[in-house]
Amino acid sequence: MLKIAWSRMYAHALPEGHRFPMAKYDLLPEQLLYEGTITDANLFAPGPLPEKFIVDTHDPVYWQRLRQLELTSSEIRKTGFPLSEELVNREIVIMNGTVQAALFALEYGIGMNIAGGTHHAFTDRGEGFCLLNDIAIAANYLLNYKGIHKVLVVDLDVHQGNGTAQIFRNEPRVFTFSMHCGHNYPFHKEHSDLDIPLAEGTDDKAYLTLLNNTLPRLLDEVEPEFVFFQSGVDVLATDKLGKLGMTIAGCKERDRLVLELCKRHNLPVAVSMGGGYSKQIAHIVEAHANTFRLAQQIWF
């Protein structure tokens, strides 16, 4: 059964003025339920992630300062959100959503989080709407406690996964792959194990050709036991923060390519939603919904 992490905190714990386009966190499950792609049985509400698993990845001093709301005004400004206890609690729940999705992936082949993909969070700081890094925390959980020896991160958000790259730069058990718009945030890029910077306006054909020429080879070379897929839909031409030229259909084919390769190689995959900032919320929800529809079609 497809298991999907979702909590009302995902949207409602955000500060006023930051809830669009984050309304997608409520609208997406509503759409999937309405059309019959999922039922209530597919959804689970994660609880807070225990501190032990947070400090396996994040600097304990940073974590304590974050939890106690002691970040400086400069640090808070870089995260993009006003800091609050409610916001930190939301982040902890999102982290556990991806950890639990990874555990469900070990059982069923795939697990998904309606939030997550917080790839701009570093070991010791947050950036770009990310306070903690769910992919890194969940990957370390599998490495430390579940006997996984090799993880591949496939980050196809329009922005480079700079925090994930920094966290794992000296960790040979995790291979980080980021394909992103080269001239976009973050303006200082970290070094992933493989970075593919794309030109502004890259369209479906060019994008999919490049991904199809890269990912199968990576699976053969890296030989991962587990995949984390950051499936941000800010690659759309309609995205306010994106700068690429993809259509909703092209984005769907991107996800199909990744998910079918994982299925074909018998690789469990945990999917985090990542970014999406199109002016019309319907574009965001439809592009994200395609990822869940494909998961159902390919696995179940």
From TrEMBL:
The keyword Glycoprotein does not apply. It comes from the Bacteria. InterPro entries: HDAC_classIV, HDACs, His_deacetylse_dom, His_deacetylse_dom_sf, Ureohydrolase_dom_sf. Keywords: Hydrolase. GO terms for molecular function: histone deacetylase activity; hydrolase activity. One of its GO terms (biological process) is epigenetic regulation of gene expression. Residues 18-289 form the Histone deacetylase domain. Belongs to the histone deacetylase family. This is Histone deacetylase. It comes from Pontibacter burrus.
